[in-house]
Amino acid sequence: MNSVPAANLRVLSGMRPTGRLHLGHYHGVLKNWVALQHQYECFFFVADLHALTTDYESPGVIRESVWEMVIDWLAAGVDPKAARLFIQSRIAEHSELHLLLSMITPLGWLERMPTYKDQQERLKEKDLATYGFLGYPVLQTADILIYKAGLVPVGEDQVPHVEMSRELARRFNHLYGREPDFEEKAEAAVRTLGKKNARLYRELRRRFQERGDEAALQEARALLEARQNLTLGDRERLYGYLEGGSRVLLPEPQALLTPAARMPGLDGQKMSKSYGNTIALRDDPDAVAQRLRTMPTDPARVRRTDPGDPEKCPVWRFHQIYSDEKTREWVQQGCRSAAFGCLECKQPVIDAVVAEIRGFRERARPFQDDPQLVRGIIAEGTESARDVARQTLDEVREVMGLVYR
Ligand code: TRP
Ligand code: SF4
To answer: With pLDDT > 70 as the criterion, what percentage of the chain qualifies?
Structure first.
């Protein structure tokens, strides 16, 4: 789909600190981060400012959740050597870009956000008729654009926000990326590519502009990506020239839809804190085993001899996540023929979940024992992310007229 060399794409994602993470977070989000961190340059952050937009009345929860959440990430295998881990509010550049972008954000875009009305409905007990909550997607856009991230792993519910960040990037580039002599400068930039590459660039640009050939556009971008010695201005012009008449100051990101791992809770509903059916990443293994032993199964299996239907059983959903093909076959056969009881059926799931949790606890231990270790990891990630954020913000300030010499 995307022929831009992977190593040159930045991945960015944030998570709001709202409490202990559970297996739903692991199978739905963190496992994905862990896989991405070795493929891309990754930025993962604690979205504490986003948490404030809805939980401004209870800052204590945020304060208590931040470090525990980072420990959960580390326990899940997020590797601070592979990804930059940081806290959003510690990089003031996010907030400044949020403010600057707010200047060009049409109110209608925000009012039309599906999440805006939905959340107000869903969180009736909170007063979300605030300026900060309305601006939530602008803050998220700032998070993404400040790192010029190419890919944003998110769940389905967040796709409209990423879409909005694309629209804001486009609007920004249109407003501030235009220069009176753009064409001339772009042509001069093409010539710096050297004879062969200049010819290739022009050919690819023509194919895209005349026929909308997406593959040609991707190939041209890859060509630019591979050129290490372009000046920033020329790079922005050459990207912009492929598609139109302005520099690409802030590239448009893409949502990377996290495959919806429908992690069931202990009652078969979606695993969620509000249903009280969660298994936390670092729960006590014995207690978890006990809860799994007593979780409900297909109600048709009243007696051991009654056949059941895995489709009507939450345990089956666990097998789908934790068991191999052979075990799943065994479940299907044995359940429908009443060859074994539910407790026996649960055992492979219990073993797998307990092993997984033991692994998390093991990996978390050094960080629990020495909180300074976590503080250090975040300090380092924050410094390193801030360097990138500052560069972008300098450019933004410049084109928005905020540089006085
Ligand atoms: N809004 C996201 C959520 O609730 C969290 C978030 C904040 C985020 N900023 C982001 C996700 C930037 C991706 C990119 O899940
Ligand atoms: Fe569920 Fe397994 Fe019992 Fe069938 S045998 S009802 S799949 S726990």
So the answer is: 98
